[in-house]
Amino acid sequence: MSENFSSADFGNSTKRRLPICFCLDTSGSMMGNPIKQLNQGLNNFLASIKANDDTRSATDIAIITFGSSVEIVMPFGKISKDKALPEISASTTLTPIGEGVLTALELLDMRKKGYKEMGIKYYQPWLVVITDGAPQGPNAMANYNLAVKACNELEASDKLVVFNIGVGNGVDFDLLQKLSVKRPEPISVNSADFGKLFEFLGSSSSSIVSSGMNDDALYNISTEPEGDSVGVDDFLSFVDGDDE
Fold it and tell me: What is the DSSP pairing of strand 59-66 with strand 70-74?
């Protein structure tokens, strides 16, 4: 994988950047309403980014999907006011989460190198992994273990913020938890909650670039987790300042 950088790619702004890479499950179990809600949530997220000039010029977004193969459906690039997202579809039984995460990390690393070449400062990159299952397919577990190791090393050295998000009841939360060494439990949502999830991500990214919110706020939760995951409502209440 290679990427060439130019000033046009980054636009005219020299603002400090927040790179966010979405790594999304497009296996068959995401077909129907889940993938519809995911697309809607992503579009709402992008709309919230574009609504504020400061956030739009500072936020850098890429989207990777993993299903029958790993695809970079939207590479990093300048976000213009008329920027549109590609429609994401689901249609396979394979779930190569590890390969998707490794591709996302490589994309983020190349983006950071581009920032350095252009003399642009950046915030800790975000990796947002959304899945409703567990690794499936050739070498799925081997690649997942490699992805876990890479994520853990970056996160432990404050070079990455990981959002490990499980959708529905079919998620292997024990495996998903391994992607993060800082988050107490994975974030758990139903597909109907994608609106809340992307509202949280949008407001958090805006807070990072506009007011310098500390990255620790993306991990700390004021309520005790129930079961084997943390609900997105807990995150929203924390970000909204309703924690006790």
Answer: antiparallel
Q: Show the CA angle centred on residue 58, arms to residues 4 and 103, nearest 5°.
A: 45
SS3 call for 156: helix
Q: Looking at domain 25-239, what is its CATH homologous superfamily?
A: von Willebrand factor, type A domain (3.40.50.410)
Residue at 90: amino acid letter: A
Distance, in Å, from the CA atom of 204 to the CA atom of 236, rounded to the nearest integer, reads: 9
Q: What is the pLDDT of residues 119-174, one digit of tens each?
A: 889 989 999 999 998 999 889 999 999 999 999 999 999 999 999 999 888 899 99
**Tens of pLDDT along 221-237?**
332 333 333 344 444 44
Give the Å distances, CA to CA, from 70 to 40, 54, 135: 21, 32, 13
Question: What three-state secondary structure class fits 35?
Answer: helix
CA distance 221 to 218: 8
State the DSSP string of 181-225. Answer: SS-SS-EEE-GGGHHHHHHHHHHHHHHHHHH---GGGGT--SSPP
Residue with the two structure tokens 């915030």: 123
Q: How far apart are CA 220 and CA 52, in angstroms?
A: 26
